Amino acid sequence: MSAHWIEQLPKVELHLHLEGAIPPPALWPLIQKYGGDPAVPSAEAIADRLQFRTFREFLDGWVWKNGFLREYEDFTWIARAVAEDLARQNIVYAEVFCSPPDFALSHGLETQPLLRAARAGLDQVPEVEIALVVDLVRDYGVERAERTLRETAEVRDQGVIGIGIGGSEHRYPPELYRDTYAEARRLGFRTSAHAGEAAGAESIWGAIRALEVDRIGHGTRAEEDPKLLDHLAATGLPIEMCPLSNLRTGTIPAIETHPIRRYFDRGLRVTVNTDDPGMFGNSLAAEYRLLQTTFSFSRAEILTLIENAIDASWADADRKQALRDQLRDRSAL
Ligand code: HPA
Ligand code: ZN
Predict the structure, then answer these.
(1) Backbone angles phi, psi at 100, to 5 degrees
(2) Mind listing the pLDDT tens digit for each residue in 231-253?
């Protein structure tokens, strides 16, 4: 099976952070614009700065990089660069997290113009359809999350279809956001929550029971509780898995230990995603190649994973069918 086969397939991404997907050549001009960083003398040195051993170090890198996003036009710039990168990889549909609360206190940026600026950049790349998912970021507390939700609801015409909570899962359990998620549902948003990445199975249960999520972000540690695996298999709740992200942040000790093959074989609705490719140096094709080489996924199984992503997406029924047709046409080549 050639690597080319995966690259040319039309693919779908459901767990990708706009601010974590900035290709280093697009981040470099922003670093220069804001006075540079002596520890990062070139675009090539960005990858060295973004090496992590732990989830904590990953979050440090996240904050460092966000320090170079200070004006609305920076969001137009990165959104265009990210969309172009997705289009180059034959990713045809993506649901992309954007984290306005990270820029509210530090840089005084407001949710609505920030989302408009991001949309302006995405719209410059018609080859890929990108829906936005607003990350309410659990670290800033419920009040800020609810404010961001209300502000987001007023600009949903910017192509915002859902909400999520990223950030420090180990410090802010999902239950804190029960009312916020109820309100998001009432407003008509779809929901996902990062769970089972930096905390264990109880955090996934919390996302299911307290937040009533439509999808689980990561879900890596679900197998700590066999009853949870039974529940996920029985309900078909989609899981946005991110194997190389889990390796890079130290969520798993070695790639061979990643549970994706076990979950797939057990009938969980697994999807494959990159999370923060600008920080991890991965790509969706690289994730699928890894599944072939390390976990012996067949061609048919890889097509199933892409179909899972289409099914688990929040696109409307017609769009999903068009994506399935496109995949079927191209996979026969
Ligand atoms: N986990 C938590 N917060 C994040 C992540 C993640 O994987 N990516 C970007 N912010
Ligand atoms: Zn994530």
Answers:
(1) -55, -35
(2) 999 999 999 999 999 999 999 99
pLDDT surpassing 60 at residue 1: no
What the chain holds in terms of domains, given with CATH numbers, is 3-314 (3.20.20.140)
Strand, helix or coil for residue 277: helix
Our CA dihedral for 221, 131, 147, 192, rounded to 10 degrees, sits at -20
DSSP state of 169: T
52 Cα–ligand 2 center, Å: 15
Counting ligands in written order, the one closest to the CA of 249 is: 1
The SS3 assignment for 199 reads coil
Closest ligand 1 atom to Cα of 217 = 7
Q: Which residue has a Cα nearest atom 6 of ligand 1?
A: 166
Give 41-50 pLDDT, tens digit per residue: 999 999 999 9
Express each pLDDT in 165-190 by its tens digit: 999 999 999 999 999 999 999 999 99
